[in-house]
C-alpha cells in the first residue's frame, strides 16, 4: 500500500501565508519495496490545501489532508505528470491518511473542477 514515510516538517514564510519544507518529504507509490516514490525536496514552498478562505470553516488549509496537499502542490508545480495523474495521486494519498470520505471527495472535486488554472500556469513555467 502507498505510504508517507516521514514527518512533514515546515516553517512559515515571513508573511505567514506559505510554508517552507525543512526536510525532504517522500511518498511511496505501492509498497515500500516498489522503489517508486515522489520526493518533495526541502525548500519547497506550499500553501497546504488551496481552499478559498470562505470555505475554511468546513475545509481549513490543513488537516488530515495536509501531507497529500503538499504532495499535490509539488506534483502540479514540479513534475511532468498530467493533471489527471496528479489528482489521482492526491486522492489516493488522502485515502492513505484516512481523510474522511466527504472531505476526500470535496477536495478531489475541487482540484478536478478548478485545478486546471494553476496546473496550466505551472506547466508553462516548467517549459
Description:
This protein has 127 residues and is α+β, with helices and mostly antiparallel strands. The protein has one domain (3-126). It has helices at residues 66-78, 83-96, 101-114, 116-126, and strands at 3-4, 10-12, 19-21, 25-28, 37-40, 45-46. The strands form two sheets. The protein has a three-stranded antiparallel β-sheet with strand order 1-4-5, with helices on one face. Strands 2-3-6 form a three-stranded antiparallel β-sheet, covered by helices on one side. A hairpin with a 6-residue loop joins strand 2 (10-12) and strand 3 (19-21). Helix 1 (66-78) packs antiparallel against helix 2 (83-96) and helix 2 (83-96) runs antiparallel to helix 3. It starts with a strand and ends with a helix. The mean pLDDT is 91.
Rg from Cα: 14 Å
What structural category arises from helix and sheet content?
A: alpha+beta
From the spread of the alpha carbons, the general shape counts as: globular
* Strand line-up in the sheet with most strands: 1-4-5
The main pleated sheet reads as: 3 strands, antiparallel
Order of helices and strands: EEEEEEHHHH
Overall number of strands:
6
What does the average pLDDT come to? Answer: 91
Distance between the termini: 33 Å
Residue runs with pLDDT of under 50 for 5 or more positions: none
**Helical residues, percent:** 40-55%
What amount of the residues lies in strands?
A: 5-15%
Total individual domains = 1
